[in-house]
């Protein structure tokens, strides 16, 4: 019972309906459009997977997959 109450009391961050993504984020051609945007939102805005999913109208699991794919590509140096 206490865990439910404590979860309800947690502050929820409001997701801004207008998020500006600079064009230089899309210049890395080793990442897809979605990978670039999700990676930027997660790392620069420190948004949660759920917040990104709401902003992009996607499922949380899709955002997790896209972010991890982008992170892997970045760690591999973008090589194919």
Concise summary:
With 80 residues, the protein is mostly helical. The protein has 4 helices and no strands. It starts with a helix and ends in a 5-residue tail after the last helix.
Itemize the secondary structure elements and their pairings.
Layout: H1 2-9, H2 33-44, H3 49-56, H4 60-75
Helix pairs in contact: 2-4, 3-4
Would you count the extended β strands for me? Answer: 0
SSE ordering: HHHH
Question: Would you tell me the overall average pLDDT?
Answer: 84
Query: Judging from the principal axes of the Cα atoms, what is the shape?
Result: globular
The gyration radius over C-alpha positions equals: 15 Å
Report the biggest beta sheet as strand number plus sense, adding barrel if it closes.
none
Number of helices: 4
Uncertain runs with pLDDT below 50, 5 residues or more? none
**Straight-line distance between termini:** 50 Å
What level of helicity do the residues show? Answer: 55-70%
Question: What share of residues are in beta strands?
Answer: under 5%
Question: Which structural class matches the secondary elements?
Answer: mainly alpha
Task: Jot down its keywords.
80 residues; mainly alpha; 4 helices
Please tell me about this protein's structure.
The protein has a domain at 35-80. The protein is built from 4 helices and no strands. 55% of the residues lie in helices and 0% in strands. The model has no long low-confidence stretch (mean pLDDT 84). The termini are far apart. The longest helix is centred in the C-terminal third of the chain and has 16 residues, at 60-75. It is globular, with a radius of gyration of 15 Å. α2 crosses α4 and α3 packs across α4 (60-75).
């Amino acid at each position: 019972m206490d865990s439910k109450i404590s979860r309800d009391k947690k502050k929820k961050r409001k997701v801004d309906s207008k998020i500006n993504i600079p064009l230089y984020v899309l210049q890395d051609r080793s990442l897809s459009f979605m990978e670039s945007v999700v990676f930027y939102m997660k790392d620069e805005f420190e948004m949660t997977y759920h917040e990104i999913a709401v902003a992009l109208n996607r499922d949380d699991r899709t955002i997790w997959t896209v972010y991890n794919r982008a992170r892997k590509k970045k760690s591999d140096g973008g090589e194919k």
